[in-house]
Amino acid sequence: MDVLPMYEELLEDIAQKNGLREVNPHLKLAGALGAIFLCLLSQSYIAPLAIALLLSGGILLLARVDLRTVGELYVAPFSFALMSVSVIILLAGGGQPFWSWSPFPWLAFSITRGSINEGIFVLCRVAGGMSALIFLALTTPMTDLFIVMRRCRVPEEVLDLAMMIYRTIFMIMDQLVQAYQAQRMRLGYTSFRESVRSFSMLCGSVFIASWIAGEDLIRAMDARCYSGKFAMLGEIQPVEAKPLLAVIGFLLVSAVIVVLTGRITAI
Amino acid sequence: MGEIILEARDVRYRYPHGMEAIRGISFHVRRGEKVALVGPNGAGKSTLLLMFNGMLRPDSGVLLFDRQPIRYDGKSLRELRRRVGFVFQNPDRQIIAPTVYQDVAFGPTNLGLPDGQVRAAVDAALRNVGLTGFERRPPHQLSSGEKKRVAIAGVLAMDPDLLILDEPTSNLDPAGSEDIMELLEELKANGKTIFISTHDVELAYPWADRVILLRGGEILQEDSPDVAFGNTDLVRKARLSVPVLLDLHQELERRGLKLPEKRPRTVLDMVNAIEQVSRKGASSPLYGTIHVCNVDETGQEGLSGWLSRHDGISLGAMGTRAKQRASDEGLTLDFSYGVIDKCILKALNGRSSLILTVGGMVQQVERRVTAFQEESGAEIPVREVERT
Q: Which of A146, A167, A212, A224 is the best substitution to test chain B (most B C-beta atoms within 10 A)?
């Protein structure tokens, strides 16, 4: 690992300049949450799969995020999902068995029609839900979500804290990267022992840095007449007809698929 | 000069368990002045500045703001901090909120202004520093210079009388530093009093009306820049260096060159001084014209039409809005800081130039050129571009 991966910054940076940046965040949130809800509601694998494809298409074509970034984002959740799904396929039962193995009298593995169907269903659900979350993360920056949260009556204290944390994360991240690079330049991670030592020092220095940043934050707020009010939020983009129709259309089509596909199974 | 806005009387401060950082300092700042507090690292500059808005309380001595002793109860401090805007050295330490808009709105919101006024204050502050359109950007994506501007806007939004900037140009590249100094010049033209701390003598020398040399918590000297920096012994004591122009002037004088009495503050002063010596008796040359254009009152056709009629003219812009306009119209600027001086230099060389600027700065051009004329006798014509 030559450079620290910085997914948080990466995601946020992409979201800040994606093709759907100017769409009202309520709409994007409604689309994503609606998609997750429909994925959970559907009894067939087809609707979640369709939702995953539609939203991925949206990320690639409308938000114009490049394929590689999106691919990388899908890798981690999918590898987890594949592992869980393989366990489900082996353990779940029902229907005609294709293969079975019983190493002990009390333990049996089998692959059946039912277990394969169940596995595919779970995998597609994961895909649908993940693509909804990734769609939201890539198209809606945190700064817009804060505004939505305030409109949804999230308590002020929670929101102020969230905003301060958001602002501080990037500063501490910078410090972390600098300290880490300084350690690497002086060969801090060459052996296992050395790595453990360096890592503990890194944690210590970042802790102290965040402590100081906290004290500075209080001073900065004092110097600017803090009286318990965090700045009010800016305006958000108005709801426009085209994106509104697109979200309604997307949710309607998905809902129709959910209803029409009923309990259709893969095999 | 205006009345006294800030005054210190024998102020002392000792850090808890530490050495005495400020050892009996007295000085005053007048309304509309530009003062630079210059000293080496560890001289106590930041400590002193933090007293001006009540972040630190002196152990003894009195600080007066607007002729009233500073009081340290919550309500008085809030009022003080509204009127004394403090810009930290590191903008990352000052910017609190997740977006530019929210950060600039922080002060006005906490002052309890209604939403409409907050919005107006933020818009005005962002326009002032040239960051209109940055409202929704998160600060961590901005450059150092832009962050500095956000920090300044956050303070301007509270409409302070006195602006205090701790090392305003540290961590900025040369162009970024010049932009910030130009911005401070503009704010001064809008009636703000400005007090900066720095150890960059080249920066403080042409800019400041008055310089306070600080070392080891004491004032070494307080005077106009050419006098304060002209004392080589003191400058060495303060671990600073003599500004290049002043050094050059002194060296030339030592070599018997009869230069005008007044010490040069800018390249223009120096060129003028040398020309006066070398051109003695020669006939007066033909000067170029300085054209001034108020971009708020000149339409795009007017400006581009004017430029097409005056091909090859040098172009300068003064003020953030003028610079914005120039970049909007795809104009390449020959000068973006110290513009008036550079245009006078051109004019002395027989070349004409155009200065893009706004409102009150138009008069500033005329004032500067008139002042130069009185000093050097060079009659440089200044013409305003016709409004369209």
A: A224
Q: What's the average model confidence in pLDDT over B339-346?
A: 88
Nearest residue to B94 via CA among B38, B53, B36, B45: B53
User: Which residue segment(s) compose the domain that A110 sits in?
Assistant: 7-261
Asked if the model's pLDDT at residue B177 lies above 60, the reply is yes
Of the candidates B31, B28, B25, B43, the residue with the CA atom closest to the CA atom of residue B240: B43
- Structural contact between residues B56 and B50, judged by C-beta atoms closer than 8 angstroms: yes
Q: Quick check: A157 contacting B, CB < 8 Å?
A: no
Enumerate the residues of chain B whose CB falls inside 8 A of the CB of residue A9.
Answer: 140
A171/B92 Cβ within 8 A: yes
3-state helix, strand, coil in chain B (%, to 5): 45, 20, 35
Query: What length is written for chain A?
Result: 267
Q: A193 burial class (0-12, 13-18, 19+ CB within 10 angstroms)?
A: exposed
In a domain, residue A2? The reply is no
pLDDT, tens digit, 9 for 90 and up, residues B344-381:
888 888 888 999 888 777 888 888 888 888 887 888 88
The ipTM is 0.74
The end-to-end CA distance of chain B, in Å, is: 37
- Inter-chain contact A171–B78, Cβ cutoff 8 Å? no
Identify the sign of the CA torsion B229, B234, B240, B242.
positive
* Helix H or strand E encompassing A107: strand A107-112
pLDDT computed for residue B1 by the predictor: 64
Q: What is the pLDDT of residues A33-76, one digit of tens each?
A: 999 999 999 999 999 999 999 999 999 999 998 888 888 889 98
Whether A266 is in a domain gets the answer: no
pTM: predicted TM-score of the whole model, two decimal places: 0.81
Q: Is B147 on the interface with A (CB under 8 A)?
A: no
Residue of chain A whose alpha carbon sits nearest to that of B123? A234
Residue B104: other Cβ atoms inside 10 A: 33
Is residue A267 in some structural domain? no
pLDDT of the residue at B208: 92
Closest residue of chain B to A145, computed from CA coordinates: B98
DSSP structural state of residue B98: S
Q: Do A232 and B158 touch (CB under 8 A)?
A: no
Tell me if chain B has a CB within 8 Å of the CB of A211.
no
State the maximum Cα–Cα separation within chain B, in Å, rounded to a whole number: 70
Mapped onto helix, strand or coil, the DSSP state of residue A218 is: helix
Interval B273-325: pLDDT, tens? 888 777 765 556 788 889 998 888 887 788 888 888 888 888 988 887 888 88
**Residues 6+ away with beta carbon under 8 Å from B197:** B36, B37, B38, B39, B45, B46, B48, B49, B165, B166, B167
Query: Are B136 and A143 a contacting pair at CB < 8 A?
Result: yes
* Least CB–CB distance from B111: residue in A143, A225, A234: A225
Please count the CA atoms within 13 angstroms of the CA of B62 that sit on its side-chain side: 9
Does a structural domain hold residue A157? yes
